[in-house]
Amino acid sequence: AVAVAAASIAAAVGLASCADPPTENPLRTFERAQKLDTICLKVNDEAGNPVVNSPLPLEACAPVPPGGDGTYYPNHLFALVTQTARGEVGVVDLTANKVIDIDRGTPGTNFIPVGVLPTGIASSPKSDITYVVTAEPNKPGLYALPSKTILGDAQGLPNTRVPTIASLPVCSLPSRPAAIELVPRKAETPDDPGYDIVVVFSGSRLEPARVVAYDAKPFLRGAGIDTSPGTTIAPGTFNACIRRSELAVAGAY
């Protein structure tokens, strides 16, 4: 019996040694990256220690010399990149030359979730918020990504929050969007952001292409950036976006 058992173990070991090695699935990074915009954030103090990020104009982010290391620079330039295969927005630190994992407690490289099929992205001149349009079937939307949360817990600071799709201000669009842009205009009040969120709808054989301008202030209130009273687009809701103006382009689709 001992001899038979020994022979069985030897045979099993032999078979195991001949088996194919287990397949290792690579960690995800970019998947069908498409559109991007950039923002500037202060992420370190003058000694290079991480601090709660604060938005800055793009010109406040100095370029890193060739071969240099910008990891401990106070101000960092970030690229926000749509991931059409994942329904997410990837965050890349261009100053430190690395991809940001916004949720270090979850395996892999984690990005900011938005709706399915993001088709465009646009960041504000102050770098305080970024807008993303998505063409999810039967649920096209316009999402706002406040800059104060886009790094999640990547900096290792206490009391940080990892952004989720339910934490983002969002409103519904009338049809599938093709592109988005922030168009400057004269500020009407001291707290006016001075731009409209302009979304292009390519149209179809049944309806013309359209260019629609949406009000940014309700998003800023929903993100806690604007504290003035008024209409708010709160996180987790999906009411219709608030239009300022619209232009139809007859015969185009």
Overview of the structural elements:
This protein has 253 residues and is mainly β. It has helices at 2-18, 217-222; strands at 33-44, 50-56, 75-83, 88-93, 98-99, 112-113, 118-123, 129-134, 141-146, 170-172, 179-184, 195-201, 209-214, 243-249. The strands form three sheets. Strands 1, 2, 3, 4, 5 and 6 form a six-stranded antiparallel β-sheet that branches. A four-stranded antiparallel β-sheet has the order 7-8-9-10, with no helix packed on it. A four-stranded antiparallel β-sheet has the order 11-12-13-14, with no helix packed on it. The longest helix is centred in the first third of the chain and has 17 residues, at 2-18. The N and C termini lie far apart (80 Å). Mean pLDDT is 88; it is low at 1-19 and 22-27.
